[in-house]
Known about the structure:
By secondary structure, the chain is of the alpha+beta class. Helices cover 30% and strands 31% of the residues.
Amino acid sequence: MIIYYHPKFSRMYKKLPRALQKLAEERERAFRINPFDSRLDTHKLHGRLKEFWSFEIDPKNHIMFEFDGADVIFLKIGDHSEY
Length: 83
């Protein structure tokens, strides 16, 4: 699996506090091994975002992504108010 980073994701990531960036990197490593690892709480979104998925960085912050065949595109990062 290759993970691509949408430009918006990259901009949002750079604005996060360093501690949250580090935690996001740890979660991404777990995601690369198993996107459905129970520690990530990976779930499908609903409503207008129903084609997307999300996994947890911490209880407040998440990464929104989509599957693109065998690959993944990280779209947004932050708290739920970001999406």
